[in-house]
């Protein structure tokens, strides 16, 4: 895989890496990049369609670590991931447990169901035409809280995704397990889940907290899968508080 990424902000400031979810790309972090303009922001675009090699969470994490070793040059690194990007973030801090200072893990699935992986290929082959259907894409965008401003970008990207690449991505996403080395991470880890997310996502949050006794979990009220899209200002305030060792916003519920 070859890494594609954009850089924003102050090249000499602490680093924040934003890892997007599946089905979207780096544009999902536009409001975060603008808010954290005093930091050095790195926003990868995870290339699933254009690569001749199968996408791998583990492989992508290894490449990100190599990139960040060059970019950081001794500076503090914060890593923020959503969904697929959150799984990559977990893999990064598991492979390099002393490398990341702060992590914000949003809606990471770590409790795979074997039967789900088995049915991915036939299901996608039967339904792949739906990704080209504008009405269906509208429904999918609504589930992720993607508004009209970003819908055209979302629709353009999803309708051009090849079935084999969607299958590859989903197989990685839906079979991901929490690495045993996750317990060794020395940085501060915040794990979030939406109050209205599926039960398996809430169980995944519990699994992540069990995997590292120093991690903190929070529930975001009145939201499903898409905290940063639904409440960008609250999302930004949460990150800001976390990386500055301040109290988290009162709107979110901390899990004891």
From TrEMBL:
<protein>
    <submittedName>
        <fullName>Alpha/beta hydrolase</fullName>
    </submittedName>
</protein>
<dbReference type="InterPro" id="IPR029058">
    <property type="entry name" value="AB_hydrolase_fold"/>
</dbReference>
<keyword id="KW-0378">Hydrolase</keyword>
<dbReference type="GO" id="GO:0016787">
    <property type="term" value="F:hydrolase activity"/>
</dbReference>
<dbReference type="Pfam" id="PF12697">
    <property type="entry name" value="Abhydrolase_6"/>
</dbReference>
<feature type="domain" description="AB hydrolase-1">
    <location>
        <begin position="16"/>
        <end position="236"/>
    </location>
</feature>
<dbReference type="InterPro" id="IPR000073">
    <property type="entry name" value="AB_hydrolase_1"/>
</dbReference>
<dbReference type="InterPro" id="IPR050266">
    <property type="entry name" value="AB_hydrolase_sf"/>
</dbReference>
């Amino acid at each position: 895989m070859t890494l594609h990424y954009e850089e924003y902000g102050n090249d000499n400031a602490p680093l924040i890496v934003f890892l997007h979810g599946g089905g979207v790309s780096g544009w999902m972090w536009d409001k975060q990049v603008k808010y954290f303009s005093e930091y050095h922001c790195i926003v990868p675009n995870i290339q699933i369609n254009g690569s001749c090699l199968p996408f791998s969470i583990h492989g992508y994490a290894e490449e990100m670590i190599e990139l960040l070793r060059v970019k950081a040059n001794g500076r503090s690194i914060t890593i923020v991931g959503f969904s697929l990007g959150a799984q990559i973030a977990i893999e990064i801090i598991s492979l390099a447990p002393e490398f990341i200072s702060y992590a914000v893990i949003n809606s990471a699935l770590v409790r795979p169901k074997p039967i789900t992986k088995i049915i991915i290929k036939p299901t996608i082959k039967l339904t792949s035409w739906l990704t080209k259907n504008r009405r269906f894409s509208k429904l999918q965008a609504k589930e992720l809280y993607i508004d009209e401003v970003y819908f055209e970008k979302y629709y353009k990207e999803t309708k051009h995704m090849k079935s084999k690449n969607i299958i590859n991505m989903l197989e990685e996403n839906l079979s991901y397990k929490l690495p045993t080395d996750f317990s060794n991470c020395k940085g501060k880890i915040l794990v979030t889940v939406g109050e209205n997310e599926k039960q398996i996502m809430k169980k995944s949050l519990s699994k992540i907290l069990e995997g590292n006794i120093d991690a903190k979990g929070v529930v975001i009220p009145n939201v499903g899968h898409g905290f940063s899209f639904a409440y960008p200002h609250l999302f930004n305030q949460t990150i800001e508080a976390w990386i500055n060792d301040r109290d988290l916003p009162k709107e979110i519920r901390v899990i004891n």
